[in-house]
Amino acid sequence: MYAFDFEKPGSIADAVAALKDEDAQALGGGQTLIPTLKQRLAMPSKLVSLTGIAEMQGISKAGGEIVIGGATPHAAVADGVAGDYPALAELAAHIGDPAVRNRGTIGGSLANNDPAACYPAAALGSGATIVTDRREIVADDYFQGMFTTALDEGEIVTGVRFPVPEKASYMKFEQPASRFALVGVFVAKYADGVRVAVTGASEEGVFRWSEAEAALSSDFSPAALDGLSVPADGMISDLHGSGAYRAHLVAVMAKRAVAAAG
Ligand SMILES: Cc1cc2nc3c(=O)[nH]c(=O)nc-3n(C[C@H](O)[C@H](O)[C@H](O)COP(=O)(O)OP(=O)(O)OC[C@H]3O[C@@H](n4cnc5c(N)ncnc54)[C@H](O)[C@@H]3O)c2cc1C
């Protein structure tokens, strides 16, 4: 690790100001960033911790949506939304291990946009809105490819708003060592249609499977997905699984998600 300065502001405004320094970087739960620093893959001049900002913590409800503070750890999401949005709670409860869930934050996960992360599937699959210190970004515009988002330099994810669906489920085929998704499929049924978001599979990061969405919007049953598949081209191929294997898993996990959502 390189030497760096450290600040722990108590408000979003102070964090935004602290992040204006050259090469300053936000720190959420550190579950991704700290290992990156240890491997000397990043060299920020200053880390600005967001976990002491009360207005970025916790869960509330407003206008049919669940609002989650950007610095809320996964374990708190798992507990806090279990009654209102069980599929999201289950997703959070199966991220990594207890240490990751107690430190890692939803804002950090969405800012990082790891192609195998779970929250991007929930946010895109729910049509969530990402709230930052300066604007609101709908999920369809927010995710822009592997490790790439619409966030500008120094922009902070202060919260996320999730519309609550009628039914939903997330099915993850875990990479057993890390518990990241080899393939994860989030299915959510709303009054105006079904959304299907896939993580872990594509070289472009999380994506919506529009063919499945159309089929499920007219018939919300696993059988509606019979014969549908995603092309293996553009799927991630690595030591954990080939592109063809991941493409196959997308259809399998989508069916399982629909069955579990009921
Ligand atoms: C062993 C292990 C297993 C894991 N398994 C899973 C899994 O199964 N599913 C899954 O989804 N994830 C998994 N993760 C990732 C985990 O969820 C991390 O918590 C997450 O990727 C990053 O969140 P963080 O709060 O730790 O962010 P940090 O590591 O602190 O930061 C990550 C990046 O986001 C930026 N950042 C942090 N917070 C904000 C913010 N509020 N606004 C803007 N930028 C911000 C940082 O500058 C940095 O670039 C795993 C991690 C580990 C170590």
UniProtKB/TrEMBL annotation:
<dbReference type="GO" id="GO:0016491">
    <property type="term" value="F:oxidoreductase activity"/>
</dbReference>
<dbReference type="GO" id="GO:0071949">
    <property type="term" value="F:FAD binding"/>
</dbReference>
<dbReference type="InterPro" id="IPR016169">
    <property type="entry name" value="FAD-bd_PCMH_sub2"/>
</dbReference>
<dbReference type="InterPro" id="IPR002346">
    <property type="entry name" value="Mopterin_DH_FAD-bd"/>
</dbReference>
<keyword id="KW-0560">Oxidoreductase</keyword>
<protein>
    <submittedName>
        <fullName>Carbon-monoxide dehydrogenase medium subunit</fullName>
    </submittedName>
</protein>
<dbReference type="InterPro" id="IPR016167">
    <property type="entry name" value="FAD-bd_PCMH_sub1"/>
</dbReference>
<keyword id="KW-0285">Flavoprotein</keyword>
<dbReference type="InterPro" id="IPR016166">
    <property type="entry name" value="FAD-bd_PCMH"/>
</dbReference>
<dbReference type="Pfam" id="PF00941">
    <property type="entry name" value="FAD_binding_5"/>
</dbReference>
<keyword id="KW-0274">FAD</keyword>
<dbReference type="InterPro" id="IPR005107">
    <property type="entry name" value="CO_DH_flav_C"/>
</dbReference>
<dbReference type="InterPro" id="IPR036683">
    <property type="entry name" value="CO_DH_flav_C_dom_sf"/>
</dbReference>
<dbReference type="InterPro" id="IPR036318">
    <property type="entry name" value="FAD-bd_PCMH-like_sf"/>
</dbReference>
<feature type="domain" description="FAD-binding PCMH-type">
    <location>
        <begin position="1"/>
        <end position="167"/>
    </location>
</feature>
<dbReference type="InterPro" id="IPR051312">
    <property type="entry name" value="Diverse_Substr_Oxidored"/>
</dbReference>
